[in-house]
Amino acid sequence: MIHVEFDDREIRRALQGLLAVTGSLDEVLTEIGEELAESTKQRFGTQTGPDGQSWEPNSPVTIERKGRNQPLTDHGTLGEQIEPRLLGNDTLAVGSSTEYAAMQHFGGAKAEFPHLWGDIPARPFLGISDDDEDAVLNIIAAHLRDATS
């Protein structure tokens, strides 16, 4: 499983405020997880990372083997298996349990992984974009409004 952490003071402050009012983050983290999982899945369609950078195209060898040049979208398995998971009372994980997810996210060299047919460039799909951060803050704000009204 890939482990990517996003440490943002503004989101933490907002979550701490919500926790002080509601006593639980389960509901808001569940909604945030669904939002981030959907956003991550959409990256497979746009073929861009959370930073907005386009993924590298497939190599000529991969195009020859697969007959297409759409990275990480061959069968859709990786993109379909992005799921949120609550870990304890205050931790949210969004990722994929597919065994090759880390290789696709971080990349790998054939020299280090002889079973590959060539080098695999990093194609980051996990992470929080600027739009994701805005969406998370909006979700927290809505929960805070609901809790105090």
Top keywords for this entry?
149 residues; mainly alpha; two-stranded antiparallel ribbon; 6 helices; 2 strands; 7% strand
Walk me through what this model shows:
There is one protein chain. 48% of the residues lie in helices and 7% in strands. It is built from 6 helices and 2 strands, in the order ααααββαα. A hairpin with a 5-residue loop joins strand 1 and strand 2 (92-96). It has one domain. Strands 1-2 form a two-stranded antiparallel sheet. The protein is mainly alpha-helical. The mean pLDDT is 87.
Short description:
The chain has 149 residues and is mainly α.
List the helices and strands and how they pair.
Elements: H1 9-22, H2 26-46, H3 60-66, H4 77-80, E1 82-86, E2 92-96, H5 101-106, H6 130-148
Antiparallel strand pairs: 1-2
Helix pairs in contact: 1-6, 2-6
Total DSSP E strands: 2
SSE order: HHHHEEHH
Mean pLDDT: 87
Helix content: 40-55%
**General shape:** elongated
Number of domain units: 1
Total helical elements: 6
Weakly predicted, low-confidence segments: none
Global structural class = mainly alpha
Give the DSSP E fraction (strand runs of 2 or more residues): 5-15%
